[in-house]
Amino acid sequence: MLTPAQAISKLLENVRAEIIDDQETKGLRASGQSARSLKTKTREISGTIKGTLTGAAYFTFQEQGRRPGKMPPVQSIRDWIEAKGIQVDNKESLAWAIAKKIAKEGSDIYQNKRPALATEQIIEIEIEKSRPEINKAIFDYFRTETTKVLKTAFR
After folding, report:
1. For residue 18, what pLDDT is reported?
2. Considering the domain boundaries, does residue 12 fall inside one?
3. Residues 53 and 121 both lie in one domain
4. Has residue 110 been placed in a domain?
5. Mean pLDDT over each residue of the chain, to the nearest integer
6. How open is the CA angle 87-93-97, to the nearest 5 degrees?
7. Maximum distance among all alpha carbons in the chain?
8. So what's the pLDDT on residue 64?
9. How far are the Cα atoms of 30, 31, 115, 116 from residue 120, in angstroms, in the given order?
10. Per-residue CA distances from 56 to 20, 60, 72, 88 (Å)
């Protein structure tokens, strides 16, 4: 029997795993750094359960892409080239060219040329899948606590 906090924790771990799987499926994972940045935390304070899933700030670019405008950091693109194992004579020049293209046109995700990370959809699906288990955990907790109170009150 799961406690409500354990059920929430399990939901968050499932969301985390599905996000990583979506990154893999869509080719959005190079070094694995963003996947490793995903952390879950569940706390219970004064009867309130709070669960969080946090990750690197650049998840926004995997979800929405990067719009045209300011040039992205060339070093970040160079690191991506390294992580992907792309073989070229001058990685610095390639990174600069990619950064200029993104600054001018936006990223491929922004332009809908490649699929984005579906974080919101993943969360919605996992909540629906977890709803029966979470409801049961809450009901079981409520029943157990109510029984304790009643046993104490009617001694």
Report:
1. 98
2. yes
3. yes
4. no
5. 94
6. 105
7. 83
8. 96
9. 22, 23, 14, 11
10. 13, 9, 16, 28
